[in-house]
Design brief:
A two-stranded parallel ribbon has the order 1-2. Helices cover 39% and strands 4% of the residues. The longest helix has 13 residues. The chain is mainly α. It binds a DNA duplex through α2, α3, β2 and α4.
DNA sequence: TTTATGGCTGTCA
DNA sequence: ATGACAGCCATAA
């Protein structure tokens, strides 16, 4: 178990359907700005039967990040399209339309 | 302990 | 627009 990962997971869990957040955004909302890469680690470590909407996390430009398994991206895209998230010509998601904009900008830290 | 490698990102050429 | 680099730093070897 990892307290660090739990913080990231807590944020990912709040991403609404049909919306996506970037790794950096997740890290920041978790109160740990600059740890985008660690968010990637946290998601990579998720079990296949997780309930977390890990597929709603994309990179800063709205694209799916490459990983060890190339099919993982297709699956992620499938899950997103199933939630009505659209991809552009260059396989990018228009963040201005599908990017998650949390209200109150609450963070895990303080409050 | 040290090195290498990441599901990243902002900056600069 | 693309590509190289430098920070971030947890994990694995």
């Amino acid at each position: 178990m990892s307290a660090l990962y739990d913080r990231f997971y807590a944020v990912v869990r709040r991403i609404p359907r049909g919306r996506v957040a970037s790794y950096g955004q997740v890290a920041e909302l978790a109160g740990l700005p600059g740890r985008a890469r660690q968010v990637g680690y946290a998601l990579r470590a998720l079990p296949s039967d997780t309930v977390l909407p890990w597929h709603r996390v994309v990179d800063a430009r709205g694209r799916l990040s490459p990983r060890a398994d190339p099919d993982g991206i297709r699956y992620q895209r499938y899950l997103l399209e199933k939630e009505r998230v659209e991809f552009g010509e260059d396989d990018r998601i228009p963040l201005e339309r599908f990017g998650w904009r949390p209200r109150g900008a609450r963070r895990e830290a303080d409050t």
